[in-house]
Amino acid sequence: MARGLAVPSERFHEFREQLFAAATPAQYVKMTESFEQADSTADLAGISCPVGLIADLSTEATARQVRVASSVLRQVGTFHGNGPFPSDPDGYFSALREFLTPWMRQGPADAGESVAQSAFRTILFTDVVSSTPLLAQLKDAKMREVMRDHDEVLNDAVTGRGGRVIKTIGDAFMAEFATPSASIEAAIAAQRGIRERFAGSEVPIRIRIGINAGEPIEEDGDLHGTSVVIAKRLESAADHGGILVSDVVKQMVTGKDFDFEDRGPVQLKGFDEPVHAWAVRW
Asked: What is the model's pTM?
């Protein structure tokens, strides 16, 4: 399947005008309602190439559709607009370029092959603090309700910044981003979202987040390799409610509007050499 992003063309506009001319208002309403009610989740699951979603997230219905699509598609970038056009053209095209660049560097795979691919990307790990005691404290149904709220916050934070949720492991999230800055923005949004969602709640949900960048190996939609393990270990070393990033991530966002605290060399489990880490103040 070709990699790319479909955009409206003159043919599309001609088709739209012909459609409007051929259909009565009642027929058009009926047609759009059938589109809205259609469930294409199974079809989306069969798409393995990178997909860009251009969406106006000003309505809850559209935002919900984007969340569903982002949770099913393997490699997805989301570009926010205002109606049919981006509200921030410079930011829109910058995000589009960041989405396309990693995939343009990869050669096409032969049809029918399952190929392990490597490309630069940023890996983000999250985990709920003290989840085992929390599970023992709550009944299963209540814990599942709490985790649904947690999952919604994390999904929105990741997909809303152009990231892809790779997998969930219990109460942990693993996600990837084309750029380190997008991953940090998502991490900050996740921490703030969790704090707001559970403010005043009897359930003290807090999360830790670790971020690293490198060239992991992708196989069957999952990521493997040292860069992934380091991201996971940074998450384990982060403060409760904290975000800990590797030095490579910090250096790549130099000049961006992020506030860091130097944590110096951090010894990570399974590694002989410590990793220089930075905490993100959010």
From this structure: 0.60
Question: Is the same domain home to 200 and 228?
Answer: yes
The C-alpha atoms of residue 272 and residue 193 are separated, in whole angstroms, by 35
> pLDDT tens-digit profile of 181-208?
999 999 999 999 999 988 887 777 899 9
Residue 23 DSSP symbol: S
CB within 8 Å of 125: residues ≥ 6 apart:
172, 173, 174, 209, 210, 211, 231, 232, 234, 235
60 shares its domain with 142: no
Nearest to 127 by CA among 147, 100, 102, 99: 147
Tokens of 186: 């998502």
**25/30 Cα distance (integer angstroms):** 9
Are the beta carbons of 173 and 229 closer than 8 angstroms? Answer: no
Say if 110 falls within a structural domain. Answer: no
CATH of the domain at 276: 3.30.70.1230
